[in-house]
Write a structure and sequence with these properties.
The protein has 289 residues and is mainly alpha-helical. The protein has 11 helices and no strands.
Length: 289
């Protein structure tokens, strides 16, 4: 039985809408380059080739992006609920400045760990699109104020100020605004749990790859849906479980037992990184990445 208080289920429906203007429609995450360089031709069928790429891409993306999503989400969630922040002592303004500073540090670390310019470009484009989505699509207008209580107004005002300040810094080119950091901050601001934010992000990555495969004419729309139903679910579940406890280490203190090798972010698919780097070298292309 559906509960009227099940806010998370409703948020999942909203955030999984393929019509949301997040910029993912123009990104193939290296799939176009993978196909153009002939790597898909070694598979027995196009759907097998797509699943092979999806598996490797999803594993590498989960290892590299989920630590940043997790830390950005934990940081904003603590700020939203007035919990003690990591390494911060002070009043309201000090807490706000600390969150902006830490999000910036996470963003700069992701920039440093993203080695190819094509992935950086796509990540920044989609990141700022998420911040714009929150400001224009998810913030409450005065005409809708009757649908919220006083506590909701206070929470939304704080989250709007935080994300708009971060977006302003992106527009000024003071920060990069990468997708994982913006996704973690957005979902925390909306009240989506970290576990569901991680799972949904990986699902959307996989769905975006299948959408790109359809537009590359490697798969038909029905075949893509079959893969999404039967193959993607166990892959997403496995990667979400494997990487759910990874973190960047930026929120950890010297007393925490953080092992960067086993608990930190990593790229696990060098071939995919190389192919993504070569995207702009194609004679003709339909995607930005």
């Amino acid at each position: 039985m559906y509960s009227a208080d099940d806010k998370e289920a409703y948020l999942l429906l909203l955030l999984s809408d393929s019509n949301l203007p997040t910029g993912s429609f123009v990104a193939s995450s290296g799939l176009e380059s993978y196909v153009k360089h002939g790597f898909s031709s070694s598979a027995s069928t196009p759907d097998v080739a797509t699943v092979d790429f999806l598996r490797d891409s999803l594993a590498s993306y989960a290892s590299s992006a989920l630590p940043f999503i997790s830390d950005a989400h934990r940081l904003v969630e603590r700020y939203a609920s007035d919990q003690e922040l990591f390494g911060c002592v002070g009043g309201t303004e000090q807490r706000f400045d600390h969150v902006i500073r830490t999000l910036t540090d996470l963003d700069e670390l992701y920039q440093a760990m993203t080695l190819n310019h094509v992935a950086r470009r796509a990540s920044m484009s989609q990141g700022v699109a998420l911040l714009t989505l929150y400001a224009k699509g998810f913030s409450r207008t005065p005409s809708l104020s009757a649908f919220a209580g006083a506590d909701s107004h206070d929470h939304e005002a704080r989250m709007k100020k935080l994300l708009e300040q971060f977006k302003t810094r992106v527009r000024r080119e003071e920060v990069f605004g990468h997708l994982p950091i913006c996704w973690g901050a957005l979902t925390a601001a909306l009240g989506l749990s970290l576990e569901r934010a991680q799972y949904l992000h990986l699902f959307l990555h996989a769905r975006s790859l299948l959408s790109a495969s359809v537009r590359l004419n490697d798969l038909g729309p029905y075949g893509a849906q079959q893969i999404l139903l039967h193959a993607v679910r166990p892959l997403v579940a496995a990667e979400a479980t494997r990487c759910r406890d990874l973190r960047t280490g930026l929120l950890d203190t010297s007393e925490d037992d953080f092992d960067e090798t086993t608990q930190g972010p990593a790229n696990t698919w060098p071939l995919g990184e190389i192919l993504a780097c070569r995207h702009d070298l194609q004679h003709s292309r339909i995607f930005n990445s």
